[in-house]
C-alpha cells in the first residue's frame, strides 16, 4: 500500500524550524537560504491545509497542531537516524554518545567507566557534559543522565541511582576541631555551591539549629569545586552520598554526623524514543543499573 507522504525536504525544513523556533538558525543547520527554507515550510502547510506556525514580527511559535506534528515528525527522524547509524556501524566500532551532568561525570561516572569498556570492547563511549535541560540541549545524544523524575516528551526515563545529602569534610579538619554534634559547625567554615544555594539552610532546619552561625562561609561557582575544597580541608560541604561514596570509602572524606540526611533527586537515564531499542544503549543503561546497585 502506497504511503501518503509530503516532501522529505519540506519535512526536514519544518522539523529544523520547529526545533529551533528560528528560520535563521534552521537555515544555517541545513545549509540553505532563509527564503528556500520558508518556501518549503509554506509548501508543507499548503499540503496539510493548515498553518503550523504563528508568525510575528520578531518571533515565531508553533500552533497547537504544529507542536503535535513536530513531536511525531521529530520522533520519526530520530528512528530513521538510529536505524541509519546501526546500518553504517554494523561492521564498525559502535559510537555511543552520552551526555551527563558535569559533577556526576567527574565524581561518579568516569571512575567506573573502564568496567563498561572492558565488558563492551565494541562500543566507544563519547562522553560530553552539560547541565542544560534536555529540552534546550542542541548537541546529539543517545543517552542523557539528569536528575529526576522528569517527564520529557519522546524520551524513555529510567531511575538507576538514589542519594541523600549530608555534611562531609576532610578527616584532618575533624582532628583539628572535632565535631560530635551539629552545633559544632559554629567553629567551622561552611562551603556553599552557587548551584545549590539553599541546601545548607534546609539541613540546619532539619538538624533543629536553623539559627546557627558558622565561623566562616565560602561560596563556589560549581558543586565539584565545593567538594574539592572539602577534600583540601577548607571547610565542610554538603555532600551527595552517591558522589562522595568513593572518597568516604577511601578515607579522603568523613561524615561527622549520620543524620539528618536530606532527600535528594535521583539520577535517571533519558533515552530518545528512536534509540530505546538500540543494543548499545540498552547495554549501557543496564550497566549503569548494575553498577549503582553494587
TrEMBL record:
<dbReference type="InterPro" id="IPR036388">
    <property type="entry name" value="WH-like_DNA-bd_sf"/>
</dbReference>
<dbReference type="InterPro" id="IPR005119">
    <property type="entry name" value="LysR_subst-bd"/>
</dbReference>
<dbReference type="Pfam" id="PF03466">
    <property type="entry name" value="LysR_substrate"/>
</dbReference>
<keyword id="KW-0805">Transcription regulation</keyword>
<dbReference type="InterPro" id="IPR058163">
    <property type="entry name" value="LysR-type_TF_proteobact-type"/>
</dbReference>
<dbReference type="GO" id="GO:0006351">
    <property type="term" value="P:DNA-templated transcription"/>
</dbReference>
<feature type="domain" description="HTH lysR-type">
    <location>
        <begin position="6"/>
        <end position="63"/>
    </location>
</feature>
<keyword id="KW-0804">Transcription</keyword>
<dbReference type="InterPro" id="IPR000847">
    <property type="entry name" value="LysR_HTH_N"/>
</dbReference>
<dbReference type="GO" id="GO:0043565">
    <property type="term" value="F:sequence-specific DNA binding"/>
</dbReference>
<keyword id="KW-0238">DNA-binding</keyword>
<dbReference type="GO" id="GO:0003700">
    <property type="term" value="F:DNA-binding transcription factor activity"/>
</dbReference>
<comment type="similarity">
    <text>Belongs to the LysR transcriptional regulatory family.</text>
</comment>
<protein>
    <submittedName>
        <fullName>LysR family glycine cleavage system transcriptional activator</fullName>
    </submittedName>
</protein>
<dbReference type="InterPro" id="IPR036390">
    <property type="entry name" value="WH_DNA-bd_sf"/>
</dbReference>
<dbReference type="Pfam" id="PF00126">
    <property type="entry name" value="HTH_1"/>
</dbReference>
Amino acid at each position: 500500500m502506497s504511503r501518503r507522504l509530503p516532501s522529505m525536504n519540506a519535512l526536514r525544513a519544518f522539523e529544523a524550524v520547529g526545533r529551533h523556533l528560528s528560520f535563521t538558525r534552521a537555515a544555517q543547520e541545513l545549509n540553505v537560504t532563509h527564503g528556500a527554507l520558508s518556501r518549503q515550510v509554506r509548501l508543507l502547510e499548503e499540503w496539510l491545509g493548515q498553518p503550523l506556525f504563528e508568525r510575528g514580527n520578531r518571533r515565531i511559535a508553533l500552533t497547537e497542531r504544529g507542536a503535535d506534528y513536530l513531536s511525531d515528525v521529530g520522533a520519526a527522524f530520530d528512528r530513521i537516524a538510529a536505524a541509519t547509524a546501526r546500518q553504517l556501524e554494523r561492521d564498525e566500532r559502535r559510537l555511543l554518545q552520552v551526555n551527563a551532568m558535569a559533577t556526576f561525570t567527574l565524581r561518579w561516572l568516569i571512575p567506573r567507566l573502564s568496567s563498561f569498556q572492558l565488558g563492551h570492547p565494541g562500543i566507544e563511549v563519547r562522553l560530553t557534559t552539560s547541565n542544560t535541560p534536555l529540552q534546550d540541549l542542541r548537541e546529539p545524544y543517545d543517552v542523557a543522565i539528569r536528575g529526576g523524575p522528569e517527564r520529557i516528551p519522546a524520551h524513555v526515563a529510567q531511575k538507576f541511582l538514589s542519594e541523600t545529602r549530608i555534611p562531609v569534610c576532610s578527616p584532618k579538619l575533624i582532628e583539628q576541631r572535632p565535631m560530635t554534634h551539629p552545633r559544632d559547625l559554629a567553629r567551622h567554615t561552611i562551603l556553599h555551591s552557587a548551584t545549590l544555594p539553599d541546601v545548607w539552610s534546609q539541613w540546619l532546619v532539619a538538624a533543629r539549629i536553623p539559627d546557627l552561625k558558622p565561623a566562616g562561609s565560602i561560596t563556589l561557582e560549581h558543586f565539584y569545586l565545593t567538594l574539592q575544597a572539602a577534600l583540601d580541608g577548607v571547610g565542610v560541604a554538603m555532600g551527595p552520598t552517591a558522589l562522595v561514596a568513593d572518597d568516604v570509602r577511601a578515607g579522603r572524606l568523613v561524615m561527622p554526623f549520620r543524620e539528618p540526611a536530606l532527600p535528594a533527586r535521583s539520577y535517571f537515564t533519558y533515552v530518545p524514543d528512536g534509540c530505546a531499542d538500540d543494543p548499545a544503549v540498552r547495554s549501557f543503561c543496564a550497566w549503569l543499573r548494575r553498577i549503582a546497585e553494587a
